[in-house]
UniProtKB/TrEMBL annotation:
Lineage: Bacteria, Pseudomonadati, Pseudomonadota, Alphaproteobacteria, Hyphomicrobiales
This protein's encoding gene: uppP
Transmembrane spans: 43-62, 82-100, 106-129, 184-205, 217-238, 250-267
Cellular compartment(s): Cell membrane
Membrane topology term: Multi-pass membrane protein
Protein name, entry field: Undecaprenyl-diphosphatase
Highest rank taxon of the organism: Bacteria
Organism from which the protein derives: Rhizobium oryziradicis
Length: 268
């Protein structure tokens, strides 16, 4: 295993953790950075498998709330409703992701031009939505109706196009359907757990024969880097978006997309 590969894996892991839960598309950042670092993994598994580090970061931050919900399930209808809402929101991605997995990985993940364009388009949409004056009807994720959760789940499926952003799609969908900014981001956190875990298991199964020991070590390094960096983001994101909204992330997306397009034209 070369030193350059180790450094690249750590850099990409940090990028994954820093971008997974903000609406800028972690997959786009990892794939584009890997493109220019010359980093390759079998079936582009690295970008998906290191997301497990980000999942564990959420579990670490929300462990008390998750345990409280779990222990109260037998006696608390509100807890049961919340768990069911998350599962309902997860269902569209589970079905569509399983059907379209090979196409997504073989075609969409291999099209950096598309990724850059989607970063820009998503940034413009995020700018527009963030500046719209909504009157929130839902401010607590525990009370999201099942119909709202299902609609958010369909919005999440847009993120199967790399560059769209899973959190960005769910947050924009939530805001358009009457949630406030803070609860939209928090529901995106909880929905990420089954979604990213499902993607991890499916991708690991699909590529189980293509991964080597060196691949496993690089994924492990990326996983650790993603976990550490994601901890900082998860702990501070809700307060940040409550005060400043999503406009800073929108401009970042646009800037990265434009720079990516220019770099692709120059370097190929």
């Amino acid at each position: 295993m070369e030193d350059q590969s180790i450094i690249s894996a750590l850099i990409l892991g940090l990028i994954e953790g820093l971008t997974e839960f903000i609406p800028v598309s972690s997959t786009a950042h990892v794939l584009l950075a890997g493109q220019f670092l010359g980093f390759k993994s079998p079936g582009n598994t690295f970008a998906v498998l290191i997301q497990l580090g980000a999942i564990l970061a959420i579990l670490t931050v929300y462990i008390q709330k998750l345990l409280s919900i779990a222990f109260s399930l037998p006696s608390n209808p509100r807890s049961r409703h919340f768990v069911l809402a998350v599962l309902v929101a997860f269902l569209p991605a589970a079905v569509i992701g399983a059907i379209a997995h090979d196409y997504i990985k073989a075609v969409l993940f291999e099209t950096p031009m598309l990724i850059c364009i989607m970063l820009i388009v998503g940034g413009v949409i995020l700018l527009i939505v963030d500046r719209m004056a909504f009157t929130p009807r839902y401010t607590d994720v525990m009370d999201y109706p099942l119909s709202l959760a299902l609609k958010i789940g369909f919005f999440q499926c847009l993120a199967m196009i790399p560059g769209t952003s899973r959190s960005g799609a769910t947050i924009v969908g939530s805001l358009l359907m009457g949630t406030d900014k803070r609860s939209a981001a928090e529901f995106s956190f909880f929905l990420a757990m089954p979604t990213m875990l499902g993607a991890f298991v499916l991708d690991l199964y699909k590529n189980r024969n293509a991964l080597s020991m060196d691949d496993g070590m690089l994924i492990g390094l990326g996983f650790i880097a993603a976990f550490v960096s994601a901890l900082f983001v998860v702990r501070g994101l809700l307060d940040f978006v409550s005060k400043r909204g999503y406009t800073p992330f929108a401009w970042w997306r646009i800037a990265v997309g434009v720079v990516g397009l220019i770099a692709l034209q120059i370097y190929g």
